[in-house]
Amino acid sequence: MTTTWPLLAEAHDALLNAVRGVGDDQWQLPTPCDQWTVTQVLQHAAGDQLAYASALTGGEGPAENPFAPSGAPVADPAGYASAATGAAAEAWAAVAADAEAVPVPVPPNSLDAVTGVGACALDAAVHAWDIAKATGQAQPLSEEAASAILIAAKQIVEPLRAWGAYAPALEPQDGDDAVAALLRYLGRDPEWKA
User: Fold this and answer.
1) What is the domain-level CATH number for residue 111?
2) Whole-angstrom distance, CA of residue 164 vs CA of residue 72
3) Which first-to-last residue range defines the signal peptide (predicted)?
C-alpha cells in the first residue's frame, strides 16, 4: 500500500525550497522563532520530520533534540532537509488514509491519519515560512495548504502552547488571508521583520 499525501508533499516542497533559497551568509540571521537562527530552525524542522518518521516506523529518531538545536553549521543544508522530509514522506506513505489511530510525536501521541499528516505538514510548512521570512524570500505557503493545515493545528496546538512550542495566538485582522490566519493562530506575526 502506498498512500499519497498532497498536503505533506506541498509542505515538504515549501521547506526544501526555502532551505535552497538561503544564502551562504544568511544562516545565522534571526527568525520569527524567538532566539533561533535560520540554522537552528532548519535543525528543528528536520528533527521534527525525523521524529514523525520514527513514531510511525519505530526507527531511529533525530540525533539531537529538535527543541534545543545546536546552531552548528550544517554542511549540506538542502541534503539534510531532504533526508528528513524524505524519511517522513516514506513513513506516511505506508499509512492508510482512513487509519483512526496513528502514532505521532506530539500530544496526544495518537491521531487519525488525516490529522496526523496535517500536523507533520504544519511543522514543515510553518518553518518553511520562518526560513523564507528571515531570508527575504517569497512567502512559500498556498492558501489551500494553509487552510488545511489550520484544521490540524486547531486540534493539536493548544496543549503544545503550555510547553512553549507555540506562542499565544494573535488576534485575527481584517483582510487576513488563509496564510495570515494560520500564522496568527500559531502566534506568528505575518508582517514579522528582523
Assistant:
1) 1.20.120.450
2) 23
3) none
